Automatic annotation (TrEMBL):
Superkingdom of origin: Eukaryota
InterPro entries, A to Z: C2_dom, C2_domain_sf, MCTP_C
Annotated organism of origin: Camelus bactrianus
Biological process, per Gene Ontology: regulation of neurotransmitter secretion
Keywords, ordered alphabetically: Calcium, Cytoplasmic vesicle, Endoplasmic reticulum, Endosome, Membrane, Metal-binding, Repeat, Synapse, Transmembrane, Transmembrane helix
One GO CC term, this protein: synaptic vesicle membrane
Protein name: Multiple C2 and transmembrane domain-containing protein 1
Bilayer-crossing regions: 540-573, 647-675
Length: 731
C-alpha cells in the first residue's frame, strides 16, 4: 500500500496537450480509450532541477500538483528556498482509463499572495509500459512563454492494470491534499466480497540503534539528525538527536507487512533546522524479501547521496490474530474457541510471548441518528476501528442515517492500557471522507459481552455530536503480562496530527501547569504557616509529628507513606466519600479549542501570521509541548493516587509494598550496589537494549486530566436503549 489512493471517475472535458512525454519500452497506446478496466498509477515524485526563481532572493518555495481530468489528486509538501528540491514523495492513484493525461504543475508558494506559476508538463499515460517501473524526466514549460527554460521534474512511475476490480474494490484510501492541513486524513473502504480476511500477513519489528559518521550539515560542523521510515503508507519518524554526527537512538517500532513477498522500507536521514527547511543527509533501503523470517538481522546501511551509516535490527514475524468477519457467520459464543483463548492467556502461560498480552473482539453492530453529510439529507457511513497502529474498517452503507454493519473485528492486545477508537465517516468519492463522530474506549473500562450504545463525540472527544453507535466488546488478557508490559515504553502511533500552534491550546496547557505548580505553592504556604504559628494547635501538632518522624525515620517509611495515601483514598472512594471532582475547567477549555478547530477548518487558507513564521512557531510549539508534558506529569501522579485507573493503582500498591519490604529488610548499600552493577553492565549484557525508565513508563499509562475528559462515556438518550428498541420493534 502506498501513501494515497484516489478513485477517479472519467471526465468528459477535453484536455489540451502541452507536452507529451514518451517513455522507454513498449507503449500501451493500443489500449482502447473506452476501456472500462481500472489502472493503478504508482508515482514517486523524486526531485526538481534548475527550477525557475520567483522570489526576490533568487530562490523559490516550490511545490507540485498532480491533476487528472482537471481534478487535483496530489499535492506535495513545500520545499523552502530551493531551486533543486528533493521531495521523495509517493502517491498511488486509481484511474478509470488512460484517456486523461497526468497534468503536473509546479508553483512557488507565497504567503498572503497568489502562488507563482513555475511551469507545467503532461505525462501521456498511454505511452507507459504496463507493469514496469519507468523513470520519467519532464521539461517544465509555460504556455505563454514557450521558449523559457523552467527546469525539469524527475518522476518514477509504474502503471498496473486492475481489470475487473472496479466493481469489487477491496480497499480505497483517500487523502486530503489541502496545503493548510498538517496531517493526513485517510479513509478506507472494504468490500463485502471477503467474508473473513487477514489484512496483513506479518509484522516487521525495527530497532533503530545508531548512526555513524553522518554528514555535517550545520555551520558548527555537526548535525541534529533524525530518521524517517516508510513502508507503503506506514510512516515512522525518530526523535531528534541534537548536535552529533554519531547519534544513539535506541528506538523500536513495528510495521505491518501486507505483501507475502515482503516490501521495500525507504529510509531517509535529515538534519533538523529551526526556522527553515530541514537538510537532507542521505537515504537507504531495506529489501524485506531478502530477509529470513523469525530471525533478527543486524543491518549496517550505507547512506546514499550522503555520508555515514545507519545501524538497524530488523525482525520479520508471523501475522498476529487480526481479522474482519461477518457477525452472521462468526460464532464468538463458540465455547471451544473461547476456551482456547482463555487457555492462551491463563496465568500458567505468563512467560510465553510476553508481547501477546490479550485478545480483543469488537462487534460493530449499527449506528442510529447519524449526521446528514450529503445535500440529499443522507450519509454514506462507514466505520474505522483502531487499536494503536492496528486499523480495520467496515463496508460502506449508502444513503442511510441508521446503518447496520454487523461486523466482528479481532485484535491482539500488546498493551492493556491502550484505547480503542471507533470513528464513523461519510464516504465521499470526490474528496476526503467527512467526519461524523467518534468514541474512545480504554480497554480497562470495557464490560465484557455487553451491548452498549455509545454517544458519538466530536473530533476532540470533548462533547457529543449527533448519533449513537452500538458496540459489543470482549477483552481477555493475562494480568501478569499486562503488569510487566506497563514497565516498558509505550507504543507510539506512526501517523499522528503534527503539533500546531494554537492560542487556546497554549492557554490550556499554561493553566494546567499553573494548577500543578499551585499545589506545590499551597503546600509550601501551609508548611510556612506552621512555622509562623498562624494556628497554634496546628503548629504544635506539626512540631510533635516532626520530632517523632525525624527521630524514628527509616528509608522504608517513604514508600510506606505513599502506600498509606493510596489506601486512604481507596477507602474514601468505596465509602462514598469520593473527593474526585469533575474537571469542568479542562472541559470548558477543550470545548473552546474545538470551536477554534472548526473555525480553522472552515477558513483554512486564512491563518494567523504567527503560524507562518517558522522560527517563532517552532519556539511557541516547543513551549506549548513542554507545558503539556509538565502538566500531564503532575496530573498523572494525582490520578494514580485518585484511583482513576484502578488496575494501575493496585499495581502501584503491589510495587510500594515490595519496596517497603525490601527497604525494611535489606540495607541501602546493598540495594544501591545491585542497582549500580545492573546499570554499568546493561550495555555489556545487551548492547542493543533500549533505554527506559520504568517509573516514567508506568506514569505514561495513567491518563492526564485532558484524557480523562476525552475518555469519559456520555450518557445516551433513553430512547437509544437496545431493550427499548426491541420493544418498539415488537410493538
Amino acid at each position: 500500500m502506498l501513501d494515497s489512493c484516489k478513485l477517479k471517475s472519467a471526465c468528459n472535458l477535453p484536455v489540451i496537450y502541452n507536452k507529451k512525454i514518451n517513455t522507454t519500452g513498449t507503449s500501451n497506446a493500443d489500449v482502447p480509450l473506452s476501456d472500462p478496466g481500472m489502472y493503478q498509477l504508482d508515482i514517486t515524485l523524486k526531485r526538481g532541477q534548475s527550477l525557475a526563481a520567483r522570489d526576490r532572493g533568487g530562490t523559490s518555495d516550490p511545490y507540485v500538483k498532480f491533476k487528472i481530468g482537471r481534478k487535483e489528486v496530489f499535492r506535495s509538501k513545500i520545499i523552502h528556498k530551493n531551486l533543486n528540491p528533493v521531495w521523495e514523495e509517493k502517491a498511488c492513484i486509481l484511474v478509470g482509463h488512460l484517456r486523461e493525461p497526468l497534468y503536473i504543475k509546479v508553483f512557488d508558494y507565497d504567503f498572503g499572495l497568489q502562488d507563482d506559476f513555475m511551469g507545467s508538463a503532461f505525462l501521456d499515460l498511454t505511452q507507459l509500459e504496463l507493469n514496469r517501473p519507468t523513470d520519467v524526466t519532464l521539461t517544465l514549460k509555460d504556455p505563454h512563454y514557450p521558449d523559457h527554460d523552467l527546469g525539469i521534474i524527475l518522476l518514477s512511475v509504474v502503471l498496473t492494470p486492475k481489470e475487473g476490480e472496479h466493481r469489487d474494490v477491496t480497499m480505497l484510501m483517500r487523502k486530503s491534499w489541502k496545503r493548510s492541513s498538517k496531517f493526513q486524513t485517510q479513509s478506507l473502504r472494504l468490500s463485502d466480497v471477503h467474508r473473513k480476511s487477514h489484512l496483513w500477513r506479518g509484522i516487521v519489528s525495527i530497532t533503530l540503534i545508531e548512526g555513524r559518521d553522518l554528514k555535517a550539515m550545520d555551520s558548527n560542523g555537526l548535525s541534529d539528525p533524525y530518521v524517517k521510515f516508510r513502508l507503503g503508507h506506514q510512516k515512522y519518524k525518530s526523535k531528534i538527536m541534537p548536535k552529533t554526527l554519531n547519534p544513539q537512538w535506541r528506538e523500536q517500532f513495528d510495521f505491518h507487512l501486507y505483501e507475502e513477498r515482503g516490501g521495500i522500507i525507504d529510509i531517509t536521514a535529515w538534519d533538523k533546522d529551526a526556522g527553515k527547511r530541514d537538510d537532507f543527509i542521505g537515504r537507504c533501503q531495506v529489501d524485506l524479501s531478502a530477509l529470513s523470517r523469525e530471525q533478527t538481522h543486524k543491518l549496517e546501511l550505507q547512506l546514499e547521496e550522503g555520508e555515514g551509516h545507519l545501524v538497524l535490527l530488523v525482525t520479520l514475524t508471523a501475522s498476529a490474530t487480526v481479522s474482519i468477519s461477518d457477525l452472521s457467520i462468526n460464532s464468538p459464543e463458540d465455547q471451544k474457541e473461547r476456551e482456547e483463548i482463555l487457555k492462551r492467556y491463563s496465568p500458567l502461560r505468563i512467560f510465553h510471548n510476553l508481547k501477546d498480552v490479550g485478545f480483543l473482539q469488537v462487534k460493530v453492530i449499527r449506528a442510529e441518528g447519524l449526521m446528514a453529510a450529503d445535500v440529499t439529507g443522507k450519509s454514506d457511513p462507514f466505520c474505522v476501528v483502531e487499536l494503536n497502529n492496528d486499523r480495520l474498517l467496515t463496508h460502506t452503507v449508502y444513503k442511510n442515517l441508521n446503518p447496520e454493519w454487523n461486523k466482528v473485528f479481532t485484535f491482539n492486545i500488546k498493551d492493556i492500557h491502550s484505547v480503542l477508537e471507533v470513528t464513523v465517516y461519510d464516504e465521499d468519492r470526490d474528496r476526503s471522507a467527512d467526519f461524523l463522530g467518534k468514541v474512545a474506549i480504554p480497554l480497562l473500562s470495557i464490560q465484557n459481552g455487553e451491548q452498549k450504545a455509545y454517544v458519538l463525540k466530536n473530533k476532540q472527544l470533548t462533547g457529543p455530536t449527533k448519533g449513537v453507535i452500538y458496540l459489543e466488546i470482549d477483552v481477555i488478557f493475562n494480568a501478569v503480562k499486562a503488569s510487566l508490559r506497563t514497565l516498558i515504553p509505550k507504543e507510539q502511533k506512526y501517523i499522528e496530527e503534527e503539533n500546531r500552534l494554537s492560542k487556546q491550546l497554549l492557554l490550556r496547557n499554561f493553566i494546567r501547569m499553573k494548577r500543578c505548580v499551585m499545589v506545590l505553592v499551597n503546600a509550601a504556604y501551609y508548611v510556612n504557616s506552621c512555622f509562623d504559628w498562624d494556628s497554634p494547635p496546628r503548629s504544635l501538632a506539626a512540631f510533635v509529628l516532626f520530632l517523632f518522624v525525624v527521630w524514628n525515620f527509616e528509608l522504608y517509611m517513604i514508600p510506606l507513606v505513599l502506600l498509606l495515601l493510596l489506601t486512604w483514598n481507596y477507602f474514601l472512594i468505596i465509602s462514598g466519600k469520593d473527593n474526585r471532582q469533575r474537571d469542568t475547567v479542562v472541559e470548558d477549555m477543550l470545548e473552546d479549542e474545538e470551536e477554534e478547530d472548526d473555525k480553522d477548518d472552515k477558513d483554512s487558507e486564512k491563518k494567523g501570521f504567527i503560524n507562518k513564521i517558522y522560527a517563532i512557531q517552532e519556539v511557541c510549539i516547543s513551549v506549548q509541548n513542554i507545558l503539556d508534558e509538565v502538566a500531564s506529569f503532575g496530573e498523572r501522579i494525582k490520578n494514580t493516587f485518585n484511583w482513576t485507573v484502578p488496575f494501575l493503582s493496585w499495581l502501584a500498591i503491589v510495587a510500594l509494598c515490595a519496596f517497603t519490604v525490601i527497604l525494611y529488610f535489606i540495607p541501602l548499600r546493598y540495594i544501591v550496589l545491585v542497582w549500580g552493577i545492573n546499570k554499568f553492565t546493561k550495555k555489556l549484557r545487551s548492547p542493543y537494549a533500549i533505554d527506559n525508565n520504568e517509573l516514567l513508563d508506568f506514569l505514561s499509562r495513567v491518563p492526564s486530566d485532558v484524557q480523562v475528559v476525552q475518555y469519559q462515556e456520555l450518557k445516551p438518550d433513553p430512547s437509544h436503549s437496545p431493550c427499548k428498541r426491541k420493544k418498539n420493534n415488537l410493538g
